[in-house]
Amino acid sequence: MKRFFNTRETIVTEALDGFLRSAAGRHLCRLDGYPDTCVIMQREPEHGLVSVISGGGSGHEPAHAGFVGRGMLTAAVCGALFASPCVDAIVAAILATTGEAGCLLVVKNYTGDRLNFGLAAERARALGKQVEMVIVGDDIALPESRTPRGVAGTVLAHKLAGHAAAQGWPLARVAEFVRDGAGRMRTIGMALEDCNPYETGRTSRLATNEAELGLGIHGEPGAQRIAVAPANDLMHKVTDTLEASLPATTGDTRFAVLLNNLGCVPEVEMALLLEAFSHTPLARRVSHVIGPAPLMTALDMNGFSLTLIELDTAITHALEAPVQPHAWPGMAPLGSPAVIPMPPMPDAFPHPASTDPAVKALLERGARILIANEAPLNELDGKIGDGDAGSTFAGAAREITAALDRLPMADPHQLMTTISNILTQHAGGSSGVLFAIMFSAAGRSSAPWQQALCEGLEHMMACGGARPGDRTMIDALHPALKALAETGSLADAARAARAGANATTTMDTARAGRAAYVPSEHVRNVPDPGAEAVARLLEGLARD
Q1: What does the alpha-carbon distance between residue 233 and residue 239 come to, in Å, rounded to a whole number?
Q2: Could you give the CA distance from residue 3 to residue 200 in angstroms, rounded to a whole number?
Q3: pLDDT mean across residues, the chain
């Protein structure tokens, strides 16, 4: 996978300085200790409060620097990629931010973090600082492990600690509150691909049909390798594992769930995963949701994690409290989507159904032709567009076929108006809208239906902006409808459409449509998919 970076050694310092230049980092500053000391801290901390410090290896952004700010961390100590920061860097963060109220270190349960933060705490105590440490081990992937890993639940610990400190609580009470919260957390992760920590030549350990359940945030292998399945099934696998880890509780115990993006899952898929979660048995025990959002990532891992935290009044209040860091997504009740009634819409079938066996047979044949060409047209469109032309035409054909019994087939103008309404409701992409415009204008015409289609095409071209020669479906449609109006012959229309579609292969530049944004060397010798669809449709109708 191609990446944006200069050198692996400078990724962290360059990224941190870029973050400080952004709106999300304007309230922050760093210690002048690069490259060994990478400490991001509040520029104007509230004095007299317990300092809350966390950190660890980089590559988990926005953790840890993204959570520095009022209401969360006082400072974050950032190590190299997936490597704990050095002891001196942690000591520097403690000395720079800790007053008489003391300091709480929130540490993920990894050996390097425990050792480095633990030794730093001892050195800071020797220098007269009050320091407590809370270790977060929320991972339940390996239930027999005596040292469960600290993963996305660490961010919840940041939130609890920052809130407790902001209340002015003494260090011991802050630490006790965070330890209690950490004990209420459990996390499980799932990924379709592991991550690449900028290693040349690295390949995924997972086959295309494999996923991993229970993997960590450094790309380490998961506890189970499972088959890829629909998102709902995968979510049930995750929640079943998570629910099985819960202790016996009373029926009124409520939880919040954090849905964490482990790196490169698109936002549309993360939202879909929350919807999938809402349909699991575990969701009935969850009252609040945090995310979906990237909180504790693993570079470019294509996966997500779920963290449960058992709620009480104090924890709920702490998680709901507003904070300064932009990366914290907030917590909200997990409810049903808000839905209001649709406004009254025009009737898509304003004319009574009527029959004409010849027209019905023509519509059925046309639908079969477009559906049979769905995959070839998608493949063709993939060369110069977004690869969905075949699906657009096939989808429109399926919708029209489904409404055959409601169509006014005996009246061509009423039929064209109704087809326009169907396309308006169901057809996607620009092609569907353009044909809806054409059929709508044709339905309003008083001319014979063949000439009315030509008038509709003129209206389509006026709205869409394309003309013959612009390398679009117009190059097949315009000569085809002209021939049909002049001779009434489908065979003549098909020959004209084929000639027009073939002509698009010699047009080096598209002047309209998606292909207008594609360099000429990519469109040369490739027919326009829309024009090809028109030609194949008319050729099929003429043969039959």
Answers
A1: 10
A2: 11
A3: 93
pLDDT in tens, 336-361: 999 999 999 889 999 999 999 999 99
Please choose, from the candidates 238, 240, 293, 241, the residue with its C-alpha nearest in 3D space to the C-alpha of residue 265.
293
Residue 517: the pLDDT is: 44
What SS3 class is residue 56?
A: strand
Contact 535, 497 (CB under 8 A): yes
Distance in angstroms (rounded) separating the CA atoms of residues 232 and 235: 5
User: Checking DSSP bridges between strand 286-293 and strand 302-310, what pairing results, if any?
Assistant: unpaired
Q: State in Å, rounded, how far the first CA of the chain is from the last one.
A: 49
The residue count of the chain comes to: 544
* Rg of the chain over all Cα atoms, to the nearest angstrom: 31
Q: Which of 454, 461, 446, 444 lies closest to 484, judged by CA?
A: 454
Count of helices and strands (H, E) across the chain? 18, 13
**d(C-alpha 506, C-alpha 202), whole Å:** 42
For the record, the structure tokens of 212 come out as: 């991993």
Separation between Cα atoms, residue 220 and residue 86, nearest integer Å: 22
Single pTM value for the model: 0.84
User: For residue 192, which amino acid is it?
Assistant: L
Q: How far apart are CA 80 and CA 62, in angstroms?
A: 15
Dump pLDDT digits (tens) for 141-186: 988 888 899 999 999 999 999 999 999 999 999 999 999 999 999 9
Cα distances (angstroms) measured from residue 340 to each of 279, 337, 343, 347, 426: 21, 10, 9, 20, 21
Q: What is the pLDDT of residues 260-311, one digit of tens each?
A: 999 999 999 999 999 999 999 999 999 999 999 999 999 999 999 999 999 9
Q: Measure the CA–CA gap between 176 and 100, rounded to whole angstroms.
A: 18
Which long-range CB contacts under 8 A does 429-435 form with residues at least 24 apart? 429/388, 429/389, 429/392, 430/464, 430/513, 430/514, 431/389, 431/392, 431/393, 431/473, 431/530, 432/392, 432/395, 432/396, 434/460, 434/463, 434/464, 434/473, 435/396, 435/460
Strands (E), 329-466: 331-333
Interhelix angle 153-166/171-183, rounded to 10 degrees, is 150
Which of the residues are catalytic?
218
d(CA 106, CA 128): 20
Cis peptide leading into 64, omega within 30 of 0? yes
Residue-by-residue DSSP string for 228-271 = ---HHHHHHHHHHHHHHTSPP--TT--EEEEEEE-B---HHHHH
pLDDT, position 521: 56
What is the rounded distance in angstroms from the CA atom of residue 191 to the CA atom of residue 384? 32
Contact 399, 426 (CB under 8 A): yes
pLDDT tens digits, 455-509: 999 999 999 999 999 999 999 999 999 999 999 999 999 999 999 999 999 886 6
Q: What are 190-213's pLDDT values in tens digits? A: 999 999 999 887 888 999 999 999
